[in-house]
Amino acid sequence: MAKDYTGAQSKATTLIEKFGRTVDLLKESRVSADPDAPWEGTTTSETRVEDVYAVFVPLYGETAVMETVAALGGTVNRSKNCFLIANVAGQDVRTFQKVVDGSKVWRITQVNVIQPGGTVLMYEVEVDG
Length: 129
Hints:
6-stranded antiparallel barrel, globular
């Protein structure tokens, strides 16, 4: 019998909403301004999903984290941060390119789906910015 993960999904969503904040997800695509004359340039269209709950997790780049890593003898090669985003109904977060957090725009570099048994619990969205 398959395990039902809907309770875990609900708990993940509740915790992210409780301790997180809202962000927007952006998906950009370019299309020809004139399909019959694509050499004349393209236009950029944008899909925005607003008010998505997310928890910001600074993994590297924060002073305290970098000092701790250095004290343990490690090195930090680049800044790395992520957002934990609850399941977004009707959207696959892996298809988005940017996270807009207030006035800050983060470029998505990688999305890891936490999905046991086919139920999306949350997304770990790594960002640069």
